[in-house]
Design a protein that fits this description.
400 residues, alpha+beta, four-stranded mixed beta sheet, three-stranded antiparallel beta sheet
């Protein structure tokens, strides 16, 4: 029948479709909501993230104020592998009710993952014009600034951060989109979006470092939030083993975002690419901002200091066992390291590290122990972050 609209929920068959609202790619097996409309001789198909979908006005008006719950139960056809509408109706309803703000696409932008960045780059353009005025004594780019009295110009002098942003912008403003995307690819960052979005990511990366692995799910990549340039987020990752999309709702300010160094302005060598790959495989432990709270720094310093005072002699089996026992005692004392509850298992694991690293000092081996098991305080912080991110999408606090 011409004009009939079908609403359906399914797992994406590939990673080629994009959400009609936010323009971000919908990954393979990720849940997507489809709107299919029959025309006279064709079909129109649109896809959305459930959180991006808004109930059409005709349903809200004609159906006497249809709610998201009624929409899911009465109109939404479920083709998902896990039969989400039947088994987890509340989650889908909550996602549809969730309001997601999306900046409208800038005219002339490319198809791709983000469409924001315009407001940010406009501000930086004006700052660049001011910087040129300061350096060269003239500015043709910013008439508003040019017409200000000299006294007011002095009061509006750029901060160091604004100056740095403007300088990076000047380096890339004349480059083509393909050249900008190359820079982002070299640093394993998102390459979708219009030129403003690409420039915004490059400026942020060059000044702060590459966005790293999510500290909440520890596998998803952090991304710059194009609709709010001062924030970063993680929307999850695809689990190859279970062949399922694992969602994540972690969000933070750019200052709190995990970072990796260096930022490459030229194509990295094969050796540098291998290092980047290794860092990605090791995950969140490589983020330069991870476990950087004062409690974690103090705990690590205390452990290394205690280890340096040990009588470290590994010239016999008995002394290796003694060294393993000494490190185990340091780790369990004050519960600073998140080792297993079973002391025998802990001692056995630490003993292996000692044997494999006989040439290292006690402090160096302690660093390896901390890397393997993690700090107890860091684990607590991680659990709090996970609970916070879950609470953002869970209406009932008792379910978190």
């Amino acid at each position: 029948m011409s004009g009939e609209t079908i609403y359906k929920l399914e797992n994406a068959k590939s990673g080629r479709s994009s959400c009609k609202k936010c323009k971000i790619k919908i990954l393979k097996n990720e849940i997507r909501l489809g709107v299919e409309t029959d025309g006279p001789s064709f079909k129109l198909q649109s896809w959305y993230h459930p959180t991006c979908f808004t109930l059409p006005r005709k349903l809200v008006k004609e159906k006497g104020g249809m709610t998201a719950c009624q929409f899911v139960e009465e109109l939404l056809e479920d083709y998902t592998v896990d039969e989400v509408c039947s088994n987890d109706t509340e989650m889908i309803v909550r996602q549809i009710e969730q309001k997601v703000s999306v900046t409208k696409k800038v005219k002339g932008g490319e198809d791709g993952d983000g469409d924001g960045g315009g407001v940010c780059t406009e501000r930086i353009k004006k700052n660049l014009a001011r910087l040129r005025e300061e350096v060269l004594g003239s500015s043709d780019d910013d008439e508003e600034y040019k017409n200000q009295p000299k006294k007011k110009r002095k009061m509006n002098k750029l901060s160091e951060e604004e100056r740095a942003e403007a300088e990076v912008y000047a380096m890339y403003e004349k480059k083509k989109n393909d050249e900008l995307k190359d820079v982002l690819r070299w640093n394993n960052q998102m390459v979708g979006g219009n030129k403003d979005a690409l420039l915004t990511r490059i400026i942020d990366g060059q000044l702060n470092g590459r966005l790293g692995i999510c500290p909440s799910c520890e596998k998803g990549k952090m991304k710059l939030k194009d609709t709010e340039a001062a924030k970063a987020y993680c929307n999850g990752y695809f689990d190859e083993e279970n062949q399922a999309r694992i969602p994540c709702f972690y969000e933070c300010s750019l200052k709190e975002a995990p970072r990796l160094l260096p930022w490459y302005t030229n194509e990295p060598t094969e050796e540098e690419k291998e290092k980047m790959k290794a860092m990605a495989e090791e995950g969140a432990s490589n983020n330069i901002n991870s476990s950087s709270t004062s409690e974690n720094i103090d705990a690590k310093a205390k452990l290394l200091k205690r280890a340096s005072k040990l009588n470290w002699n590994l010239d016999s089996k008995s002394r290796i066992k003694e060294a393993a026992q000494d490190l185990t005692t340091l780790c369990t004392k004050d519960h600073l390291v998140d080792v297993p509850n079973d002391d025998k298992i802990t001692k056995m694991e630490i003993g292996r590290l000692v044997v494999q690293n006989r040439s290292r000092t006690a402090s160096e081996v302690m660093e390896l122990v901390i890397h393997k098991f993690g700090l107890t305080q860091a684990k607590i912080e991680k659990e709090k972050k996970q609970a916070k991110s879950l609470s953002a999408v869970c209406g009932n606090a008792e379910n978190v």
